[in-house]
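Researcher: Let's continue the batch. This sequence belongs to ERCC4 domain-containing protein, and it's 322 residues. Same format as the previous ones, please.
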Amino acid sequence: MELLMPANPDPDSKLPYLLRLPIDGGLVLRTAGTWPRTKALYCHPVPISEWPEHPEVVERVRLRSCARRGAAIDLILDRGRENRSQIVFTTARGRDMVFWQSPRTRKQARPKVSTPTARAAGIADLHIVVDSHERYPYRFTDQQVTTVKRALPCGDYGLLREDTLIASVERKSLPDLVSSLTSGKLRYALAELAALPRAAVVVEDRYSAIYALDRVRPAVVADGLAELQIRWPNVPLVFCETRALAEQWTYRYLAAAHIWADVDTAAPASGAPADNDTPAEAPAPSTSEVRAWARGQGFPVPDRGRLRPEVWDAYTAAHPEL
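Model: Same format as before. Here are the structure tokens for ERCC4 domain-containing protein:
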């Protein structure tokens, strides 16, 4: 069995892909994406006759399982990551609707709020630079924003003045936040952000989600984040519950930074902090960070107390930039 996803040949459709499932004689859906990575995807059932004779296949993956369970179809793909999802048939506002969701998107918070569309700080058009390495960037479709992709020295979304980065926001999902914290990469990212006049880190989840982690001790993550905020208090870590709210916060933060750059004549042209002409260097790793890294590598380490010299030696060997 295979999961086939070709491009939708209908130019008038707002759903750019087709999805065919080997169930009930062949179920064909129009869908908004190729996989529900950041949010549940809206789908629209169509007759099997709409399946093109010569489909332009975008994605083809072997299926381990495709089974209907009540009002949902469970899919298990034959690959290591992003292999489980579910097609859900439901009713909303009196209409039959179909959504394609993954375990990650199903667990996302539902704050039951609508984000405002009013212009931030009255700016008619805000120009935001998106880092070229950002795989699934914010589109800011509900705001008055013009985006351009190029490589940024730090952060994922930034403001430029005369080709100088004056403000930047680093976006993190919760798994990425935990991974970069335990590996030590987050420390260096904050050190680079701290060298800017304005910078922040936005997390697409609740702070309480830290304490529901099962592969890393929650206390290690909480202590590590607290220590980073003490060392770099000018780079706030903001938890925004959902991706949509994190996108909204990023837009309004950069809009405020845009206004600040216009009115604050003391902002340095070089992009360095006003009270410091040299970039902030990353200090030596803390014991808690090394302890978390060692556990991830399989080293037996105690919950408290000093670490053995060989653990520090292994950490140093794995991080030659130190």
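Researcher: Any comment?
Model: The chain has two domains: 2-106, 120-308.
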